[in-house]
Structure formats: C-alpha cells, structure tokens
Amino acid sequence: MKYVIQLLILLPFMGYTQYVESDWEERDTWMALDTIFTAIGIEKGDYVADIGCHEGYLSIRLAKKVEKKGKVYAVDIRTDRLETLKATAKDRDLNNIKTIVGDYDNPNLPRGRLDTVIIMDTYHEMTDYMIILDHIKKALKPGGQIVIIEKLKSRIIGKSRDEQTDAHSLGPEYVENELQEAGFTIRYKNEDLGDWENDPDKVIWMLIARKN
Fold first, then answer.
1. In what order do the strands lie in the sheet with 97-101?
2. Roughly how many angstroms between the first and final C-alpha of the chain, as a whole number?
3. How do residues 26-43 score in pLDDT, each as one tens digit?
4. Distance between CA atoms of 99 and 56, rounded to whole angstroms?
5. How many angstroms separate the CA atoms of 73 and 49, rounded?
6. What pTM was estimated for this model as a whole?
7. Cα separation of 46 and 78, whole Å?
8. Cys staple from 102: which of 1, 19, 27, 75, with CB 3.0 to 4.6 Å?
9. What is the pLDDT of residues 3-16, one digit of tens each?
10. DSSP readout, 80-147?
C-alpha cells in the first residue's frame, strides 16, 4: 500500500506536531484564521472538508463558521483522535461535523458535494499526493476549491522536494505545480501568513486553487 501517508504516529494525513485542545488558545495567537477564512470565502451553509483534522482545531472553528446548514467532514487516519473530536463537538453542541477515517491514499470524501477542501500542515506528509488530489477533485462541486496551508522552514528554502518533506516542511512552488498538474487553477497565493508557533524560521503560506 505504497508508502503510507502512514497514520499520525508515522506521519500522514495530518501534521506531525500534535495540537490538543489545551493548546488551541495559544494557537489562536499565531494562526491567522480570520485572514485564512476571508481568503477562502467560507460561508454559512458551505460543505467543507478538513483533511488531517487531528483533534479538531480547524474542524471546530469551521463548524461554527458554516453554521447548522453547513457541514464539516473531518478526516484523519487515527480513530482515537476522531473520537476526541466527536467528544469536543458534543461538548460544544456542534452537530454539523462528520468524522471520516481516511485510508492511506484516499480521504474517503463524498463525491461531488464539497465547496472547499482544506489540508493544513499535512500535505508535506503525503507521498501519494497526486492520487489524493484526484480524489479531492472528484469530491468537489463544480468550481469547488482546495486550500493548502503549510509552513516553510528557512533552513530548507531552495532544497529539493524530498529534502523539504524530510524536514516536515514544503515550499509553495512544488505544490503550485502539483495542483496545476492535477487540474486546478491557482486563484490565491499568500507566502507570509505569519510564523508557525511564533517561530520566525517557520513561515506559514497558503495556496487556494479552483477545480477546473
């Protein structure tokens, strides 16, 4: 089964660093969610996916944003984290999150139903990224969009893709080419959304691309 986007223990479908709920308040200080949501254009009633959802930092905030008529598909390959997310959502009376156990090369999203698919701090772990992008494209509605949010560490700028991903990082130039190859059109690019964990050597960037 090809290299795994292996479970989170071994990295895949979610970022390497773990962010449990107790970390979320601090994360809000450096994660520019207002800027991100505005750029994406998240609206009430949207159907959105969060691939690599972890314990739900982004999924919970998306659920509040899309409100009751919207839906968030929270994807991870670790069922324990999905169970934690379910409990958190229940505590907050959020009934519009559906958890999905992802396969190594397939997020198992519903076909043709999504307005937006977000992959945050996870794409760099995906070795079967072109296969995954194809699945995502099929899950999106006509004109739907994919959002990639990553961090680029200063010490690996200009390095090969493999060297960057070995460092749990990735530059936008590689992802931009891959999105275009997969049949998406880049509509937004921001190469400086602040510093990951307030570390100036880890700059956050974002690409948004529409399904052709």
1. 97-101, 71-76, 47-51, 114-120, 140-153, 202-211, 184-190
2. 29
3. 999 999 999 999 999 999
4. 10
5. 4
6. 0.90
7. 25
8. 75
9. 333 333 333 443 43
10. HHHHHHHHHHHHTT---EEEEE-BTTB--PPTT-EEEEEEES-GGG-SSHHHHHHHHHHHEEEEEEEE
